[in-house]
Specification:
331 residues; mainly beta; Immunoglobulin-like; 6-stranded mixed beta sheet
């Protein structure tokens, strides 16, 4: 009888304890120590040199930044989208930007980036307008619409690129061949206004075609004459083919600017019978191609009519300059 009473008393105490714990947990339902600030206002702050509206040169490619600030920090992340509102520029080719921004919990700002891209392609002025915020109400934060406008003007590369072409197809007996295919080797040397070798042998490297980059670092303001030198004819004069003219053309291009082709004047051309460096005076291995005038970043191509070239007084000097270039050129 004693044992039954003790067991009953223990069971009653246990049930009372469980009831107390259950009621204590239920009283906490719905309570939280996290408080969300109400009526939080967001603003967009431009980081210099960024402004609401600007015109930029794509050559000065780089990053522009702005900040989105909120008046009170939130205990949760705030997500914000940025979109292209209008414009003619192409995202990924002309510009790029952070499309999704996150103001992290317990912080009050985030930085957005806009990148201008230099694509080195000649284009007309292009535009784009980005919209930040607007019709956004996230986590109690209202961010009024703000726009940033860009006009991108064409950027011009510093360098002028030249490609010297002398390729031509011909028939040796009954076999079709090409000058580049047989290893025909022409070099192009740069002489200054006084017909001195300047030591630039970029376009004298056994290439077909040969390439030359005219850069401000290597070409100071002044006049430069390009002369060709037949380095190796690879047996062309002895081949069973009718005599033909070796054509020389110069493709020129400047990133972000115009491009085109300059054709050597016929009076300076030579033929397939040219022997090479050692030959008679009436069949010289070198002659004039084109003149380049450099003036504060402006490049002008001229033919012999626009600049004085080989004449009776300079022919010997030019020959000496070409010989000097050939001896100093390390292929």
């Amino acid at each position: 009888m004693k044992n039954i009473n003790k067991q009953f008393l223990f069971t009653a105490v246990l049930l009372t304890s469980l009831l107390f714990v259950s009621c204590y947990e239920e009283d906490l339902t719905g309570q939280s120590t996290i408080e969300v600030a109400q009526n939080v206002v967001g603003t967009v702050q431009f980081v210099a040199p960024l402004a609401a509206t600007q015109t930029v040169n794509e050559k000065n490619q780089g990053k522009y930044q702005y900040k989105v600030n909120i008046s009170n920090a939130q205990p949760v992340d705030i997500y914000l989208d940025v979109k292209v509102k209008s414009g003619t520029a192409t995202r990924g080719a002309d510009f790029d930007f952070d499309e999704h921004l996150i103001i992290k919990a317990y912080t009050k700002s985030v930085t957005g980036n806009i990148n201008i891209i230099n694509d080195a392609v000649f284009e007309t002025t292009e535009t784009f307008v980005l919209e930040i915020g607007g019709d956004v109400d996230i986590s109690n934060a209202s961010i009024p619409a703000s726009t940033i406008s860009f006009s991108i003007v064409n950027g011009l590369a510093d360098n002028l690129d030249l490609k010297f072409n002398f390729q031509k197809g011909f028939v040796d007996g009954t076999t079709a061949k090409t000058l580049c295919g047989i290893g025909y080797d022409m070099d192009f040397y740069v002489l200054d206004a006084n017909y001195n070798d300047i030591g630039n042998y970029q376009a004298a490297a056994s290439g077909c075609p040969e390439l030359l980059t005219v850069s401000p670092a290597k070409f100071k303001n002044g006049t430069y004459h390009i002369f060709y030198d037949l380095y190796d004819n690879h047996g062309l004069p002895a081949m069973n083919t009718p005599e033909f003219t070796i054509p020389i053309s110069v493709d020129y291009s400047r990133g972000g600017g115009v491009s085109g082709t300059f054709n050597q004047e016929a009076e300076f051309a030579f033929t397939s019978k040219a022997l090479g460096y050692v030959q008679s005076a009436n069949n010289e291995p070198y002659d004039y191609v084109v003149t380049i005038v450099v003036n504060n970043g402006v490049y002008t191509l001229k033919n012999s009519k626009g600049a004085t070239v080989a004449n009776a007084r300079t022919s010997n000097k030019i020959a000496a300059a070409i010989q000097h270039a050939r001896l100093n050129n390390k292929k």
